[in-house]
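Quick one before lunch.
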Amino acid sequence: MAEQSVPGATHADPTWAIDLADVAKTYKGKIEALKGISMRIQQGEVFGLLGPNGAGKSTLVKILMTIIKPSRCQGTVLGHPVGSLQVLRRVGYLPEHHRFPNYLTGAQVLDFYAAMGEVPRRVRRKRIGELLELVGMGDWGKTRVSKYSKGMKQRVGIAQALMNDPDIILLDEPTDGVDPVGRRDIRNILAELKARGKTVFLNSHLLSELEMVCDRVAILVHGQVAQQGTIDDLTAGKERYEIQLECDSPLQDQTCAALLRKITLEPSQSNKRNADRFVLPSGPWVECEQSTLRIGTTDPALIQPIIDVLRQQRVMIRSIKPLRPSLEDLFLEAVDDAQPDESEAPSPHQKKSKTKRKNRKNKKNHRESQA
Ligand code: ADP
Ligand code: MG
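Model of the magnesium ion complex:
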């Protein structure tokens, strides 16, 4: 495949840590967990696989770990065909919902799992202390797992995944059930792993988590990759400015429209409730909803004339913020877009989602038409 087919890929001649094409898995002949996905992960990057529960994330990781057999699969892990056992020596794995034996101490957990992975005893002795330190568990190695919090178990789980000094680390929901401080610490550990040149493949349904740590993400919905790329790639063209106006009470629609008429050329069609869109002479759309003005640009020069008009009108400005859609916005858009089409009989819930999707699509199309 040509390199430009990988969204967000930057290296001229990348060596892929994971290179997958057409991976499919059907459980029991009927549950299509993966429907033929393709994905490439560069060496040394932190890659996030994002998706709602049941999207197929863990299935993919288990295929890479040879725990389950794919129905169909082409591709390689560190240059070896998926399914080859020898490459697992170079891969570390934190399964989701793992349960270490409660009677073992943290240090014994690391020793036990590394021994199963045939890491020599001498190497294990050395790494146990180092890795417990790395994950902030230096003082807890001699305490039994039964005394650990969920966050501490996750930290030991990550240390366990590093005992064989792997080149690729597969982490399935590493921050599941971990409090915000623990999540920040885990993010720092991931940054440290990246600094050491490791490739990290991370599954998560915690969107803000991925936004903060990942070089690239893929959004998996119903066993298919809906989007793939850097967060900048995925948000490109969707940024906006928001100007918050100081008002005693939210502006009425008519007041909004009057204000917009002063700063724009013409009203344009929009189906958004409580907001009419107008077009600035310089091109971008602008809309006013209650006390918020939104402008479809990230160019500060284009919002200066608006500020001038607002000040001439003696409207007080409370804040001006450049915004881009969060990963959550992109994710919801991908999930909405993946809803069944009109020909399929929808459930009441799907009907509701379809209306939302329609509105969002109209909004998106409208923005694009203004670009
Ligand atoms: P995720 O990790 O994204 O939550 P999973 O990969 O665990 O998703 O599951 C994807 C789909 O496959 C779900 O519909 C799930 O119920 C189904 N599934 C997962 N494991 C099995 C299994 N062992 N047998 C049958 N169905 C399974
Ligand atoms: Mg899962």
